[in-house]
Design brief:
It contains 23 helices and two strands. By secondary structure, it is mainly α. The N and C termini lie far apart (60 Å).
């Protein structure tokens, strides 16, 4: 019996298959192997012998370590319960009302995202610390500890939840509201039966993001946590303070569990969410109504004022001569060489590190997303690759950083030459922020009709020519968004790189932590303000460049 004839793949398809294989190997080496090594290390002793669950039992039997699990969970739950309703109301005002200054409110909302998470904590020290201006406002409760962590996390996490919910609320079918109104449903009834069900997926995602950010954040508990143990600071103490990598691996795995559980809940909630904006949908346009718009405008003014006060307090504190005894203004705090051995060079390291992450990461992530969406349909490659592209979203930065220490610092690993260099910082950040950028790229590519590639193939045009002349120009806004996101995230991240920098590669975000540790609060605030200013400039440059290029390359979008 003759053997079946196998289809012959064109040269373009073979090249794209090779690209998918290389991408799969890359993510396996940069994500799977380090996490697997961390998993193995948690069940070994210092000599590498297998000890089973002995490390876990030791961890749970230590009161302070066991308390860190409970503390992380209840503070994260409390912040989620506070932030999500506030963010929902803020996003509702931006998308479902006719309040003035909506563009300004959106801009103010993004300010905490552009700064390290330590900035809100430093501002709260100036406001509510032992020598703060409003130290009596906490009614005797000390700022250092759970109170400070919850307050600072609410400020830091609010923009993330508000952005997610604004997107969820922006897609609404006006026919549903017209039908509810024709049935004489009250406004609260419409909110409960139309608005909230339509935004259920966004609410779940916002809650999961806030919960995960609080559980995994290192900067805020380090600055304002005092003696209140949480999982993130315990990992740092075990690894840096005690050099106990095995116990650090155990804490890392425990830190990974709530993040994975939250990620699983988010996937389940969004899978159960039905589409609320079909092809026949009519976009919802709110109509002015004083009874709704006035209270929402006052609410947005209060939230925006609070965010501006937090950022403004950090900016003002960065110019103080000697807090709290000498409040004269000075520029001495920006002479970073007086407070940290790295001085201004740490900022230069951050700029190089962020630029490399944005440049290399944008190219790699967009190319892999394009190969997945437009390449050959081979489940053996595309299935695992899609899964690995989604995994980093559920891996905390501290866990990934610890996994990189154990994997890249192993004597047998030839990749160990990267340890202590900017290369490992770039690789770690690229992997850590991979999922959000991948989803952005996939969304942009899926908006293109696959007929572009079909027509090009019928004309004999190579696939990479179509990619260069068609796909890249049309997807330019998404590419700029990915590059800006990677740059700003690399500039402000602490948890992902706190274990990985070398003497000559310390980033500015880590320098903020070290200056705060030594009591140089004003200098730490100054460095955080510089990072905020640089990220703000990058964001404005992205918007300006996108608008300038859009007038040419995106002319086809305008009628």
């Amino acid at each position: 019996m003759a053997e079946p004839v196998r289809p012959v793949l064109p040269a373009d398809q073979k090249i794209m298959l090779a690209g998918l294989a290389v991408a799969l190997v890359f993510l396996a080496a940069a994500l799977v192997l380090p996490l697997g090594f961390l998993l193995v290390r948690a069940f070994q002793d210092a000599q590498g012998g297998f000890v089973g669950l002995a490390n876990v039992a030791q961890y749970l039997s230590t009161p302070s370590l066991a308390a860190s699990v409970v503390n992380s969970l209840w503070t994260a739950a409390l912040v989620t319960l506070v932030v999500v309703p506030l963010a929902f109301t803020y996003a509702y005002a931006l998308t479902r009302s006719c309040i003035p200054l909506r563009l300004l409110f959106r801009a103010v909302m993004l300010l905490p995202v552009l700064a390290p998470s330590l900035l809100p904590a430093l501002s709260l020290v100036y406001l509510f610390g032992n020598q703060g201006f409003l130290r009596g406002a906490l009614m005797g409760a000390p700022l250092q500890g759970p109170v400070g962590i919850v307050l600072a996390q609410c400020v830091a996490c609010f923009p993330h939840a508000a952005m997610i919910l604004a997107v969820a609320l922006s897609a609404a079918d006006a026919r549903l509201f017209e039908a509810a109104a024709s049935l004489r449903a009250g406004r609260w009834r419409i909110l409960a039966t139309v608005t909230l069900p339509g935004a259920r997926g966004g609410l779940a995602s916002a809650a999961v993001v806030v919960f995960t950010l609080v559980v995994t954040d290192f900067g805020i508990p380090k600055v304002i946590g005092g003696n209140f143990p949480v999982l993130a600071t315990e990992v740092y103490k075990q690894v840096v303070g005690q050099q106990n990598f095995n116990m650090g691996a155990v804490v890392g795995l425990i830190l990974l569990l709530p993040a994975l559980a939250a990620y699983g809940f988010d996937r389940w909630a969004n899978a159960a969410q039905e589409s609320v904006f079909s092809g026949r949908a009519v976009p919802y346009t709110p109509r002015p109504r004083t009874g709704r718009d006035l209270p929402l405008f006052v609410f947005c003014c209060a939230i925006a004022g609070l965010l501006l006060a937090v950022v403004g307090m950090a900016v003002w504190g960065s110019f103080i001569q000697f807090w709290p005894w000498n409040l004269a203004l000075t520029l001495d705090n920006y002479d970073f060489g007086r407070f940290d051995p790295a001085g201004w060079s740490s900022l230069g390291n951050s700029l190089v590190f962020a630029a490399l992450t944005a440049g290399l990461g944008t190219g790699v992530i967009f190319l892999v997303a394009w190969l997945l969406e437009r390449g050959p349909r081979l489940p053996a490659l595309s299935g695992p690759l899609r899964f690995l592209a989604a995994v980093p979203l559920a891996v905390p930065g501290l866990v990934l950083g610890l996994a990189y220490i154990l994997f890249f610092n192993a004597p047998w690993n030839p990749l160990g030459v990267m340890y202590g260099t900017l290369g490992i910082l770039v690789l770690n950040s690229l992997v850590h922020f991979y999922t959000v950028c991948h989803l952005t790229a996939v969304t942009a590519i899926r908006q293109l009709d696959p007929e572009f590639e079909s027509v090009s193939a019928s004309l004999g045009v190579p696939v990479w020519v179509t990619f260069w002349r068609v796909t890249l120009p049309i997807c330019l806004p998404a590419i700029l968004e990915i590059a800006a996101y990677l740059f700003m995230s690399a500039m402000t991240t602490v948890s992902a790189v706190i274990f990985l920098y070398g003497p000559d590669t310390k980033p500015a975000s880590v320098a903020v932590v070290h200056m705060d540790e030594t009591g140089q609060v004003s200098a730490a605030a100054a460095m955080a303000v510089v990072l905020l200013g640089l990220n703000l400039a990058v964001k404005l440059a992205q918007l300006g460049l996108g608008a300038a290029l859009g007038r040419g390359m995106q002319r086809w979008r305008r009628r």
